[in-house]
Design a protein that fits this description.
This protein is of the alpha+beta class. The chain has a domain of 256 residues. The strands form three sheets. Strands 5, 6, 7, 8 and 11 form a five-stranded antiparallel beta sheet that branches. A four-stranded antiparallel beta sheet has the order 2-3-1-4. A two-stranded antiparallel ribbon has the order 9-10. A hairpin with a 6-residue loop joins strand 9 and strand 10. The two termini are 39 Å apart.
Length: 449
Amino acid sequence: MFLKKLFKRTAEKIDLQDIQAIMLRDRPLPYHGVNVFLEILDTVSAKAFLKEIVPYVTNAKNWWDNDDAWLAIAFTYEGLKKLGLPHSTMESFPDAFKKGMAAHSEKLMDINENAPEKWDAVFKTKGNHIAVSIFAKDMDDLNSKKVLALRVLKKHKGVKLRFQADFDTPIEGNFNHFGFRDGISNPEIEGSGAVQLNSKERPIKAGEFIMGYVNEAGNHYPMPQPMEFAKNGTFVIFRKYHSHVAAFNKYLIQQAKSKDEQELLAAKMVGRWRSGAPLNMCPFKDNAALGADTRKNNDFDFSNDQNGKLVPYSSHMRRMNPRDSKMAVMSDVNLHRIIRKGVGYGPVLPNGSTNDDGKERGLYFIAFSAKAMETLEFLQKEWVNNGNFVSLKNEKDPMIGLNEGKGTFTMPADPLPKRYIGMPTFNTLKGGMYLFMPGIRAIKWMSEA
């Protein structure tokens, strides 16, 4: 509601009533929710479940009004098979989706600490068929929606609850477990009615994220068939990360003497101060007011910092959205953007603690793209775990890269750059999967096909 009052929205040109709301809605603040994974034991029962649950799947009409709880549903390839979709439809999906995320671990650089054999048990089998996500602004709304969904589930014995993953805002004010403001800088989708918060960037063509619309190249990406089934759908990336917050705090203390130096190093690694304020707008000191201002905290490019002395090229923010950076390996940044809806889980570690309490905490990384498998492979291999595109050889992303105690982080400075070595992996992968999230009409078709 805040943005609706402040900004004039653009014209809506995509079918918002058929698109699931999770694609476009911002998480409420604070947010509460649950990801549930279901196993299909009986096709007829599963179709009956879909037919009854689809009226509760939230569409994207008036998506900017996110005060009410909302529900989304998506399917793995194995789940779509269990639903008995036509052979021609199943064959029309991309190979990477058919094989699953674990089968492409080498291409994704999910190796060593992040290898599938080290994932949580729930991600090692093919029993995850349907994923249901619920987001809410308070626990009462969440529990109300959960009761409704469970009531539907209990009526259909051929669908089994397999795994429940609760999530919550880790730190009040929308901060992640590392203490940084979260959820900044999602792309604006052309035709969605979005306001333009970054005056330096234009909205990206809807076809990059939603099937059935024109993409940045002026054509359409390949879609599952029939087209009526794929239209207004998208692919989903789901990855569970365990965050080593104590290791992060310890590394800052080891590498920087004073508290101010530690905070500056943390900001350089991320590209923003903990408040969310971007370094290239306030390079010497955090500005909490700027960090909290949604009109300003993402309204910038790197035209004033092509040497990376304000925001290092290897910082997490600059790697994942280089904007107008001059890169050694040229790439159209808009082709590699994804819509992120990551959420935190687990208890907060006391501020600044260097003692790991052994409890699970981290991030459920949820993202959307019309070519999610291809995009994730590119991001993981080229931008996260390689530095060639910014002339940094094998230097990896300091926050999500596979650094394994051997990582290096370069901070350009005068007269010589500073290099921090011996960096561990701060987020290890505990599991993941690809899903297909259909439009709402397609879910009805699936329940009847």
